[in-house]
Amino acid sequence: VVEIDRLPVSNEALVFRTRRQVVELALVGGDDYELCFSTSPENSTQIATIEKRLDLSLTMIGRVVSTPGVWVVDDTGAQEDYSGKGHRHVW
Question: pTM score, two decimals?
Fold first, then answer.
């Protein structure tokens, strides 16, 4: 589940597009320049320590749930199935 309000976007992108447009590009684009990872909530203290030690800016953008698929939640709490959308690499 991706909480779209939490997605970090650059101020430079917002000069040319609305936040909604930039978020849509982030969700479906094929050029990814951020490292994404998942971890159990129990690891939050260790993650915060790593963030501080390495002077990183980490952003929690969602959570892993048992429901299959990719879901996005907007600022109103509305949830949308995003499975099948976005860039697909051809192997």
Answer: 0.75
